[in-house]
Amino acid sequence: MIKSRFRKDVKKGGFLPILIPVMNLFLLILPLVIQNAYLQKLTTLELQLPTLSEASNTTSESSRKLLLDLKQTSLTLYLDDKPVDDITTSQGFETKLLNRLVEIKKTLPSKRDILLKVDPQVKYEQVVLVIDQCKKENKLFPEVVYFDEER
Amino acid sequence: MPNFYKKKKQDVELNLTSLMDMFTIILFFFLSTYSFEGVLMKLVEGIELPRSESKIPVAEKYYIAIKKDAVVIDDETYSLSGSDDKYIFSSLRQIKKKGISFLVIQADKDLPFYVVKKYIRLAVQAGFAKPYLAVIPK
Q1: A101, B21, B35, B123: which sits with the fewest CB atoms below 10 Å from its CB?
Q2: What is the ipTM of this complex?
């Protein structure tokens, strides 16, 4: 009688073992979820503005003017104010642009800057895409200088 | 009538081993992905940033966010129509007075470039040497 009364006071927790297989399941799912997780990190893209010091370039290569004129439907590359290539900005144009920039870089290996002129109606996303191609992990023309005619 | 067939309930304990395993995995994951570079910057809601190959970390936490319908600086929202430009300019000047050298521009990827250009100009007029465009790495 005393024993059974004593037993009544003990808290029962019969539902708890159910949690163990649930946790095992989570253990299996978790690495999969983590592997496919999309973590949003922000980085920045540097855009230079023309400065007075740029006029005093020393080498002949760096003093040559390379300009990329980006319009809504096309882009034109100018070297010393002479058009060297005209590319339509359709899907996949970035490969064509990159190939052309690589060719120019081969002829002007020490040149680091490129002027970028942008038509006002061009989408911002396209501008970023073109800047990316010009820089190409800082291997081509790392100094993309925004050329604003209205300044 | 007393129930003689009543099942005797057992005392059970919660096994925490698998929980600890799970937390260990999470811990290693966060330790391996933690970036010690750059600062944390708030991404303003409603802005879809363009993607880029750039790996330059965010150097300053101060930003000007250009949404499709508004401009946000330091949690203050301004009109995109141009009527608030003088207030935007004075906000940018105040940031510059704090000794901040770089300003990050968060702009929606679908905006026409002339809108972004307008605020790049304002930032330059406020004293920021060059703009840093906030992007999502590819």
Answers
A1: B35
A2: 0.73
